[in-house]
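Methods — Computational structure assignment.
A single polypeptide chain was analysed. Its primary sequence is given first, followed by the predicted tertiary structure written as structure tokens.
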Amino acid sequence: MSGSNRKRSAKGEKRDGRGRFLPGTAPGPGNPHVQQLSAWRSAVAETVTAADLRKVIAMLVKKAKAGEPWAVRELLDRTLGKPHQMLELTGMSTMPNVKALPADVIEDIIDARG
């Protein structure tokens, strides 16, 4: 890489002519909230026992079996995963067997086309 491709930004980071960081450039400080979140997760892990979790799950299953909609939704979301949003395609005369595709698949197709 030639010296003409190297420059310093106003903040002093070394970047090449295309704006990419050069090898050896120190990373930024990252997300300051990650340490706090990690501390909270550690506190929960130290406080909540496996027996506590079993009791909570049993209560959730009991409420779902009793027909509580929020409990059914939570139980299914946590065990089977949230359903994909479906997007119906219209005007697809060349593909009559295609009725709907998940929205994330459509987004991937659009992103791939640029």
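Note: The mean pLDDT is 80.
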